[in-house]
Automatic annotation (TrEMBL):
<protein>
    <recommendedName>
        <fullName>Nucleoside diphosphate kinase</fullName>
        <ecNumber>2.7.4.6</ecNumber>
    </recommendedName>
</protein>
<feature type="binding site">
    <location>
        <position position="57"/>
    </location>
    <ligand>
        <name>ATP</name>
    </ligand>
</feature>
<feature type="binding site">
    <location>
        <position position="91"/>
    </location>
    <ligand>
        <name>ATP</name>
    </ligand>
</feature>
<feature type="active site" description="Pros-phosphohistidine intermediate">
    <location>
        <position position="115"/>
    </location>
</feature>
<feature type="modified residue" description="Phosphothreonine">
    <location>
        <position position="91"/>
    </location>
</feature>
<feature type="binding site">
    <location>
        <position position="9"/>
    </location>
    <ligand>
        <name>ATP</name>
    </ligand>
</feature>
<keyword id="KW-0547">Nucleotide-binding</keyword>
<comment type="function">
    <text>(Microbial infection) Catalyzes the phosphorylation of dZDP to dZTP, when the bacterium is infected by a phage that produces the substrate for the synthesis of dZTP (2- amino-2'-deoxyadenosine 5'-triphosphate), which is then used by the phage as a DNA polymerase substrate.</text>
</comment>
<keyword id="KW-0963">Cytoplasm</keyword>
<dbReference type="GO" id="GO:0004550">
    <property type="term" value="F:nucleoside diphosphate kinase activity"/>
</dbReference>
<dbReference type="InterPro" id="IPR001564">
    <property type="entry name" value="Nucleoside_diP_kinase"/>
</dbReference>
<dbReference type="GO" id="GO:0006228">
    <property type="term" value="P:UTP biosynthetic process"/>
</dbReference>
<feature type="binding site">
    <location>
        <position position="112"/>
    </location>
    <ligand>
        <name>ATP</name>
    </ligand>
</feature>
<keyword id="KW-0067">ATP-binding</keyword>
<keyword id="KW-0479">Metal-binding</keyword>
<comment type="function">
    <text>Major role in the synthesis of nucleoside triphosphates other than ATP. The ATP gamma phosphate is transferred to the NDP beta phosphate via a ping-pong mechanism, using a phosphorylated active-site intermediate.</text>
</comment>
<comment type="subunit">
    <text>Homotetramer.</text>
</comment>
């Protein structure tokens, strides 16, 4: 079953959006297989966002993502990587259409509420950075 890594960022947690965000993915039909509220270390932030290391905003990004608790999650389901990205909306909330998470709740690219893996490779990498195998649940196939 396809899996993706999603994370409510510090702005989304502090604004009380965890429930709203979890609810959207549940109602869509995806299954939550792992979740934790945690404060990310600088080392983990730099690993997670390693591909942006040379970008001018990298320092601000690491500072922001480590500034307070995040809600890290693993979700599974048919085409969950692509569909979750669609449900999140464009990276910059000013371009995100209404009805998407960033379109409905975000204003700026720095504080854009949620992160989601953009490919199978990044999903595998990000899930293993944040979760041990034993922290991921399995669901009965009968339901
Ligand atoms: P995310 O999907 O978590 O992946 C990388 C993040 O970098 C992105 O969301 C944005 O929050 C952030 N980002 C991208 N561009 C900028 C920018 N110009 N200034 C600050 N942050 C940015």
């Amino acid at each position: 079953m396809e899996k993706t890594f999603l994370m409510v960022k510090p702005d989304g947690v502090q604004r009380g959006l965890i429930g709203e965000i979890v609810s959207r993915f549940e109602k869509k039909g995806f299954q939550l297989v792992g979740a934790k509220l945690m404060t990310i270390s600088k080392e983990l932030a730099e690993q997670h966002y390693g591909e942006h290391k040379e970008r001018p905003f990298f320092g601000d990004l690491v500072e922001f993502i480590t500034s307070g608790p995040v809600f890290a999650m693993v979700w599974q389901g048919e085409n969950v990587i692509h569909t979750a990205r669609q449900m999140m909306g464009s990276t910059n909330p000013k371009d995100a259409v209404q009805g998407t998470i960033r379109g409905d709740f975000g204003l700026t690219v720095g504080k854009n509420i949620i992160h989601g893996s953009d490919s199978t490779e990044s999903a595998e990498r990000e899930i293993s950075l944040f979760f041990k195998d034993a922290e991921l649940e399995e669901y009965s196939k009968l339901i």
